[in-house]
Amino acid sequence: MVLIRSINVSPSMVNCSCAWASDYQQLSGLYHCPYTGAVITRTTTLDGFEEDESHTVAFMKDSLSSLNSYGYSPHPLRQYLAWIREFLGERPSPKPFIISITESSAERLSEMLAAIQQFRASNSIWRSRIAVEFNSSCPNIKDHPPPSYHLPSLKPYLDVFAKAFQDDSTLTIGLKLPPYTIATQFRDVIECISSYTRIDSGNPTNPIAYFTCTNTLGNSLVFADQTPTPDAKTDMSPFAVPPGLGGLAGEAIHALSLGNVYSFSRLLAESDDPAMREIVIIGAGGVTSPEAVQRMNRAGAKIVGCATLLGKEGVKAFEILSRKL
Which stretches make up the Dihydroorotate dehydrogenase catalytic domain (predicted)? Predict the structure, then answer.
């Protein structure tokens, strides 16, 4: 069991916010799976994302890797709240939901948080059953680069979360980060998040309770002949996904994701800010085997997440990952 502020994650394995956590059936499978300790929804927006045939995924034939051109969920926040209300109304279960959210402006994000907080307040038990994760790192949104790559762009969103946490310190807030490649990027993120630490009843606290490391690696290119069914794609395009470029995931980014988990884990542990030392890491990126789970734990992740294997195997993926080495 891993405690992240007000939610318990047991067992310490989750799905990542991804296309395979989009609808009612997918969420139901994840919620009722005995190998997941929490369910993270696909990233939703206030009114839903306009999805079309250009938003898709391709799996690679030579490794358990994927390239996707997905944006966010076509289902709006209100739909996820309705589904979660139904799940939480079933027989008592301690499994929490983490609602992955994002928006194009801090003002709209604030509206989303207000709706979630109203929902959490409608049942006292739900305060420890519902958390939020800010997806600050999707690389596939045209004309909207991930704010986590440009911290001045991230801060207005963090201000919204800081205000929500100031109003309700039971709110568990996570931050889904992109893959970083330069040492100064890690230090800059730590410094940025630490600037939000405040003293509460004599104890330093920070709005952010956990990091998810990492999201997909953007601007990646896979050709159709690198996929198991190249003939189905080459008639229309030489690329694995229609836009050509997309977010790379799975085994292809495992080493990079491990490096991100390790770098953040080390910097958090060494921080002079006690509140930063409390931040938990969810390790994601190329988690396709029990060995990969073990590597994430060794790098510093207390919880491990997966998406590509979920896309390939369905919820059976978590049984596979839970097998003893």
Answer: 26-324
